[in-house]
From TrEMBL:
<protein>
    <submittedName>
        <fullName>GNAT family protein</fullName>
        <ecNumber>2.-.-.-</ecNumber>
    </submittedName>
</protein>
<keyword id="KW-0808">Transferase</keyword>
<dbReference type="InterPro" id="IPR016181">
    <property type="entry name" value="Acyl_CoA_acyltransferase"/>
</dbReference>
<feature type="domain" description="N-acetyltransferase">
    <location>
        <begin position="8"/>
        <end position="171"/>
    </location>
</feature>
<dbReference type="InterPro" id="IPR051531">
    <property type="entry name" value="N-acetyltransferase"/>
</dbReference>
<comment type="similarity">
    <text>Belongs to the acetyltransferase family. RimJ subfamily.</text>
</comment>
<keyword id="KW-0012">Acyltransferase</keyword>
<dbReference type="Pfam" id="PF13302">
    <property type="entry name" value="Acetyltransf_3"/>
</dbReference>
<dbReference type="InterPro" id="IPR000182">
    <property type="entry name" value="GNAT_dom"/>
</dbReference>
<dbReference type="GO" id="GO:0016740">
    <property type="term" value="F:transferase activity"/>
</dbReference>
Amino acid sequence: MRLETERLILRKFVRPDLDAFYAYCQHPEVGPNAGWKPHESIEESLKYLEMMMEGNEVLAIVDKISNKVIGSVGMHEDTMRNTKGVKMVGYVLAKEFWGKGLMTEAVKEVMRHAFEVEHLELISVQHFANNAKSKRVIEKLGFKSEGTIRYARKIFDDSIEDLVCYSLTRREWEQL
């Protein structure tokens, strides 16, 4: 699958993406916002990159100007719902690209594809309570708050985080 926006190309990861992938995955502020530890080596990044290359859930976010991978976005099984027609969106972006509206642009296109092509009925999304940047992306996209699950998920450093949950139905998306 390949999707395109004004500033981005969303496509499957390929092996030549490794250096750019490692560059953002090793940053100390990127992974922890998504609940995973910063990558400690390029070999560690290669292991995760290969898993993403095998699957169909996660797309590389490529900046059209530099032609460089700057993040990822994907639609995953929503393990809280286990309902047909429902998926959960997840995303991560290199720190130097934060605050430019790029993630909102990428997720919006993935949502369009999910509702129009995959015919999903609902998309969910979550963020850790302390992740204000992700919260802002979610709000800009029109997701509706479902509430906070307290003490919900253990992350890489064994701390346990609250999850703030949102969803958007196809009907709500069509009205946006």
